[in-house]
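Aim 2 progress update. The chain analyzed this quarter is reproduced below.
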Amino acid sequence: MFARVLGPFLAIVGAAVVARAPQMSTLLSEFEAVWAGCSHTPLPPIRRIRDSQGIQSWFTASRVR
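Predicted structure tokens:
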């Protein structure tokens, strides 16, 4: 059942990729420009730290201090 759904979808996506290959760099740069304009607040950097027992965790820089 999934093959009947995914097969045509992948064929259409593949054809679109082949047809749009020369324009892909322009499309990607325009896509990145749109999303860069939406975010006015940069995300804090994420750091990996060890606690007193040696367990590694991920925290944003604001929580590491």
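The beta strands are 46-50, 56-60. The chain is about 60% helix and 15% strand. These observations will guide the mutagenesis experiments scheduled for the next reporting period.
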